[in-house]
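Lab notebook, bench 4. The sequencing result for the construct came back, and we need a structural model before the next group meeting so we can plan mutations. Quick request posted to the team channel:

Model the 3D structure of this chain.
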Amino acid sequence: MRAILTFNVEDNVTHGIIWSLLLSPQALASYSTGDVYLAAPQGKYDIYDVSAGGDVSKSVLAQAGGYNAGQLAWSTDLSTMYLSLYAANEVIAIDSSGKVSTFATGLSGPTGLIMLSDGTLLVAEYGANEVTDITAGGDFSTATALASGFRGPRNFVELVDGTVLMCAQGDGYVWEIDPASGATSSFATGLGSIRTITQDPVTEDIYAAGGAGVYDITAGGSISSADLYATGQSFFAVTIDGSGRLLAGELSGTELWDVNGGGDFSTATPWATGIHSIESALNVVPSFAYCGDGKAEEDEACDDANADNTDECLDDCTLASCGDSFVWDGVEECDDANADNTDECLDDCTLAWCGDGFVWDGVESCDDGNTDDTDACPTSCEPATCGDGFVQLGVEECDDQNTDNTDECLDGCVLATCGDGFVQAGVEDCDDTNTDNTDDCLDSCAAASCGDGFVQAGVEECDDGNTDVGDGCNARCIIEEADPIDTGEPDDKDDTGCSATPRRPAGLLWLGVLALAAISRRGRPAA
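Done. Here's the predicted structure in token form:
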């Protein structure tokens, strides 16, 4: 997580004016973020509160008591201001009431001074060309330098990403310094007699001043006159106040200009006047609050001092919410930071599922958001089809999820019936899809048989629907002949009781008998 030395520009537009008008510096318990102070290098060495602009000749907090050509810094709790005194080889501390005390001694021409966001206090020793950590205070005459080899080290700035830069007046370099290891590397060159440096906490643009004017050195590298941002005055001091003003002052001058927007300020009206003299100690009271310090500031929704983006507070100190691209543990199932409900993560940060009412692209073919398996989209989220195992209301009669046409549900999802052309196992003997009862399959889907009442063409001579003998159609569905006169003698019959030989018609035999009787009566003598 990066340390961000920022303040809310919009909330502080009139911050300096309000405080300077309503309260004297002595009434303040601590310094206020966004206010600007300037330490004069000559005269009475006054330390001015220039936050409100205008004539600041009466806005004196304290007197430094010696020549300074350095920088102002503040403790992380903003209770103490520090100022490097070049000639006295020491750093002094000034509380918010203006009380001055000695903080560090044994230094060699201290100039630049900065309190880093982690509480480390660094000083640039112009006489020794070194940078020293003086966080502990005390005598540093025998201290080991953090970094060395510079030519005329001057003021510092800590960028919003935590990078520490330092000006070097002797060679026109801006150096990047690792405060942990002391390692250095060149950030920008070609800046002449550069003394001060600052960064806009909102735009993150970096500005440096050193005689010719104020340069924009944001890009780093080799700097030239083409990078001049503000000219027209011999600007050596530069800072940005809590309202976003880029303030600059000229060496040994008595005025400050608001150089926002850049350009030529040779005829511009000064923003602040009444200053005895100016060198490089022009600085804004910083905010040491940063996202990750565990304290929710005015511009933070939360701050849990960790980089875990799966909890309720993200690492940018905003509250977790659906759509932030981080899955909030125990609250969200997913978070893809979009409102597309056709992918695997819905816009309410729940995982897509069959029945959520949204068609998951490439996975589902339909999704009607219900559990009704009798409509056009069952709970499989595939369009209802014959064979899916669900009976679609108004479309299908049945659906047994198979292609077996010998059961009660055909593969067309209609109920099996006699005449459908398929023999239903255990129910039908046959099924020839017609109503012809003279073939081998009746219209009841029973196999044709002798005795069923229907004459099977080419197979039966008759079929009277029973197995009675002597009614004209025998039990084998063969037409019966008339029976001969029963003489009581055995006749040649087959095992069915029917004669095995052709029989004469019974009527003719009876006619013969009657004729013989008539003749016999005619020849008998009368009594």
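The first helix runs from residue 15 to 22.
Will bring this to the meeting.
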